């Protein structure tokens, strides 16, 4: 859940990371009209007015009245009170059960790269991409790490949990050493592990990346911002949600035991989900990804995001 304003970060490579909603509001409101708890009717109107776009994201979006698919997206007739059939997949069952519980609004932290605190990668050509493992523009540096595919399913709570087929997500996270492109020393000219994707007709989008590292003071996580459209995302426009994905304990232990993650292996035991200053309020129950795979074969992480 959202951290309390002014909550300090534990000592580590990022002493100012995730200082709370107050920090983000003070910077985000300088260029955005709507944020987090200020959504009210404006956010509902934005969802209702959203129109599909043919961007460079995951494909042409269609009507949000799409039928349910095995990927876990509820149909236009599905509501929070609907009961899954006996043959429904675990993903569909979870989507129906969680729909109506909106994703917790969280801090974007001091390293968003969205123009609210220094550099703005959102307006850079090339930011709309599925594979975010390398920098784009003047640098082609590619990061190493255990492969990770992240899939988000976006659902519109205000309209009966239909897919948000024309929304877009900007995602970013640290590298396997716990460092952030654009901000950490020596990485100011890099923009890897940052990218934008547009939701398809099922409200789904995916990123190909590497498993994030662990640094003191935070549980391993991935940041993301949801925009009402691809065009809004690439112009740093109105936000619908700001939140974070929590990675599972088992996956972290597996990955951090591999070569290259030595720093993360040392840092990981120092912070638990309960002590984390973002997920600690409820253990990240609505932000904990469903994860499959292995360090050897790579991992997948899936999360339903109800807005």
CATH architecture: Sandwich
Biggest sheet: strands, sense, closure? Answer: 5 strands, mixed
CATH fold-level topology: Protocatechuate 3,4-Dioxygenase, subunit A
CATH superfamily: Aromatic compound dioxygenase
Secondary-structure element string: HHHEEEEEEHEHHEE
Oligomer: single chain
The level-1 CATH class: Mainly Beta
- The stretches of 5 or more residues where confidence is low (pLDDT under 50) are 1-12, 18-89
The chain-level structural class is alpha+beta
- Rounded mean pLDDT is 78
Tell me, briefly, the overall form.
globular
- The percent range for strand residues is 15-25%
InterPro entries: Intradiol_dOase_C, Intradiol_dOase_core
GO molecular function: ferric iron binding; oxidoreductase activity, acting on single donors with incorporation of molecular oxygen, incorporation of two atoms of oxygen
Keywords: Dioxygenase, Oxidoreductase
Region (Disordered): 1-23, 53-89
Summarize the model shown.
The protein is α+β, with helices and mostly antiparallel strands. It has helices spanning 21-28, 40-49, 90-98, 230-233, 249-256, 262-267; strands at residues 147-156, 162-163, 168-172, 194-198, 204-210, 221-227, 239-246, 290-294, 298-306.
């Amino acid at each position: 859940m959202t951290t309390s304003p002014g909550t300090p970060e534990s000592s580590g490579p990022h002493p100012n990371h995730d200082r709370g909603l107050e920090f983000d509001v003070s910077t985000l409101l300088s260029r955005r009209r709507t944020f987090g708890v200020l959504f009210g009717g404006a956010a509902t109107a934005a969802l209702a007015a959203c129109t599909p776009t043919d961007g460079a994201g995951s494909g042409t979006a269609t009507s949000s009245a799409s039928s349910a698919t095995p990927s876990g997206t509820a149909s236009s007739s599905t509501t929070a009170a609907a009961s899954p059939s006996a043959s429904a997949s675990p993903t569909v069952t979870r989507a129906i059960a969680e729909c109506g519980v909106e994703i917790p609004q969280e801090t974007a932290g001091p390293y968003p790269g969205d123009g609210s605190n220094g550099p703005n990668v959102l307006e850079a050509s090339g930011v709309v991409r599925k594979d975010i493992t390398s920098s784009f523009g003047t640098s082609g540096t590619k990061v190493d790490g255990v492969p990770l595919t992240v899939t988000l399913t976006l659902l519109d709570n205000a309209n009966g949990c239909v897919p948000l087929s024309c929304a877009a997500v900007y995602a970013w996270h640290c590298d396997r050493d716990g460092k952030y492109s654009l901000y950490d020393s020596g990485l100011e000219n890099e923009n890897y592990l940052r990218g934008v994707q547009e939701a398809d007709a099922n409200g789904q989008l995916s990123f190909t990346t590497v498993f994030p590292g662990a640094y003191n003071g935070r549980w391993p996580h991935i940041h993301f911002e949801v925009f009402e459209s691809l065009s809004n995302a690439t112009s740093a426009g109105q936000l619908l949600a700001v939140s974070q994905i929590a990675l599972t304990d088992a996956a972290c232990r597996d990955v951090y035991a591999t070569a290259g993650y030595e720093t993360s292996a040392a840092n990981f035991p120092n912070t638990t989900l309960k002590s984390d200053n973002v997920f600690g309020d409820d253990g990240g129950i609505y932000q904990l990804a469903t994860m499959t795979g292995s360090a050897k074969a790579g991992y997948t992480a899936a999360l339903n995001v109800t807005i």
